[in-house]
Description:
With 281 residues, the protein is an alpha/beta fold. The protein has helices spanning 10-21, 35-43, 54-58, 70-83, 98-103, 150-162, 172-200, 204-210, 213-219, 226-235, 237-259, 263-273, 276-280; strands at 2-6, 27-31, 49-50, 63-66, 89-92, 113-118, 139-143, 166-170. The chain folds into 2 domains: 2-171, Rossmann fold (3-Layer(aba) Sandwich), CATH 3.40.50.720; 175-280, 6-phosphogluconate dehydrogenase C-terminal like domain (6-phosphogluconate dehydrogenase C-terminal fold, Orthogonal Bundle).
Amino acid sequence: xxxxxxxxxxxxxxxxxxxxxxxxxxxxxxxxxxxxxxxxxxxxxxxxxxxxxxxxxxxxxxxxxxxxxxxxxxxxxxxxxxxxxxxxxxxxxxxxxxxxxxxxxxxxxxxxxxxxxxxxxxxxxxxxxxxxxxxxxxxxxxxxxxxxxxxxxxxxxxxxxxxxxxxxxxxxxxxxxxxxxxxxxxxxxxxxxxxxxxxxxxxxxxxxxxxxxxxxxxxxxxxxxxxxxxxxxxxxxxxxxxxxxxxxxxxxxxxxxxxxxxxxxxxxxxxxxxxxxxxxx
Length: 281
């Protein structure tokens, strides 16, 4: 299988690493608008060949993996579908899905596109951050598969099987709602916590020395790149706003319990939250 990867950031590079290692891919071609990313990926063997244009990398792959920010994918996905043959497959790994699926809904080559979101990642970015096994045992959400050719879906499932991922099937609109609840609000929380600490604690040495496991684990994803997350928040704004309003209500309730010295209510609030332990067990 020949793979063409457009976007050699963390996700694209991790896919290249394990799909080669697990012998799903015989040849991997890569293109990134950053020559630094592309040359690094080539030098360390993540890809076999770089490309001087998006057009040239598209022509070479049986599967074209689009691993770029959603804002860029919205512009480029129709152009990519314009250039493929009937035997090629396009799959994206963006964190929002509905706007992408709507953008190409009536494209003549829509059936050769499979909309996917592997639920994996780290706070790091770039091909130098690629690690093996990042996708193992994680979910991959496949969206609106009824609009894709059966053979395309089957091939993409085999690709994610090689990454040891567990497939789930959502409509693109439901996908965006649920990832806002679970994934996107987590990043909002982390960014808000990091900014709160930076605003209040001006001595950075204190932050470094006093940060414990709880702080580190909560704020870890605040290290995630703005270049990736601003387009996600912007594209999924309505769903993020809905869950953000509920989140703010919960913060206000916590504040009220403290202000009124309601330790019984605070105990109930925390005990209710503890239920998440059973959900995630």
